[in-house]
Amino acid sequence: MTDALEGIRVFDMSRVLAGPSCTQLLGDLGADIVKVERPGEGDDTRKWGPPFLQDAAGHDTSESSYYLSANRAKRSLTLDFTKPEGRDLALRLIAQCDVLIENYKVGTLAKYGLGYDALHRDFPRLVYCSVTGFGQTGPYAPRPGYDFLAQAMGGIMSLQGEPDGEPMKSAVAFADLMAGMYSTVAILAALHHRDRTGEGQHIDMALLDTEIAWLGNQAQAYLTSGEIPPRLGNAHQTVVPYQVFATADGHIVLACGNDAQFKRFCAAAGKPELGIDPRFATNTARVVNRADLIPEVARLIAERPSAEWIATLERDGVPCSPINKLDQVFADPQVKAREMVVRMAHPKAPAPISLLANPIKYSATPVEYKLPPPTLGQHTDAILHEMLGLDAAQIAALRKSGVI
Prior knowledge:
CATH superfamily of the largest domain: Crotonobetainyl-coa:carnitine coa-transferase, domain 1
Strand order of the largest sheet: 5-2-1-6-7-8
CATH architecture of the largest domain: 3-Layer(aba) Sandwich
Number of domains: 2
Strand content: 5-15%
Distance between the termini: 33 Å
CATH class of the largest domain: Alpha Beta
Helix content: 25-40%
Radius of gyration: 25 Å
Number of strands: 13
Structural class: alpha/beta
C-alpha cells in the first residue's frame, strides 16, 4: 500500500480543478485529505454536467463526471467558515493539519482570520498553499482567474490551431492541471523543509505563472531568438516531419525525431532518394525546406490506409501512431496493461464506477485506492468526532444552526 504520505493531513479549502487535482494526488499517495465544502452547495463542479453519475434507477445524481475526475481519496466535511462558530471549528481542525490549500481570491480568507499571516503566527509548522489565477502580487492579483484566461494570456493559444485559423485552447484544462501538479511538488518540498527545520511557509501558485512555465521549448525559442514562433497546427516548430498526415482512410501521426528515422521512413515509402536529398538529409535542412518536403510526404502517406502504415513503420522503427478516440484509448492493450482505469464502489451508484487511475507506479508502495470521490458532507460527523471529539448532540446542534 502507499504509505509515502501516511500521517500527513491536508485541510483542503480548494474547489474546481487546480487545487482538487493537487489534493487528489496527495491523497493517492497516502495523505488524509479533509475536503471542506459549503453546506448545501459543495464544490462548484458537482453541478458541472451532464454527464452525471446515475443511480440504480438510471436517474442523474448530484455527482458530475467533472467532480469525479478530481476528488478521489478525500473525505468531505461541510463547514461554513464565514460564521464565527464555523471559523472557530476550522481553526481547531487546522491545528491538527500539516497542509492547508485554498484557491479563494486574494484576501478572502484573511477576512475570516484564515489567511496565511494569522495562521502562520498560530501554527508555524503549517504549509499553506494558495492557488489563484495571477498570484498574490502584481497588478492582476485581485482578478479572478480561470484556465481559459491563463491559456489565452499565457501564450499557448497563440501557438495552437491551424495557421489560417483562430487561436485555439486545449480541450483539457492544462493550466489548472499543471498548477495542481506544480502545487503538489511545492507542497512535498515544503513538507521536507518543515521536517528539517520545523518551519512552515506560504506557497504562492498562479495559473498564469504555471501556464508560462510549461511553454517549455517554445518559450525558450522566443527568449533565445527574439522571434515569435508561428502557429503550425499539428506540425512541430523545429522537427520535420513531425505532424498529422491524412492516409487513404483516416489519419496518422508521423514523428521522425532524427535523420535515421527519416531515412527509414523514406525507404518504407518507396522513395529512398528523399532521405539523401541534400534539402532533406538533415533535420535542419528539413525545417528550412519544410514547404517543399511536407507536400511530398503527404502525397506518399495518402496512398495507403492507416493500418498498413502503422504496421510498416512500426516494423521499420519509425515512430508513428494512430489518432485514437477515447473509446479506442481505453480499449488499447497497452493502456489496459498499465491499468489506467480503476473501479471503485460509490454510495450513489448501483455498481462500481470507472475512474482515471493514478499513473505513478511504485515498486515498493503501490498506490492503493481507498476512497471514491465523496458525496457532499459524507464524512462530516466522522471528522468532527475523530479530530475534535464532538458527540452526536453537538454535531446535531451545529447542523441545525447551519454551521455544517
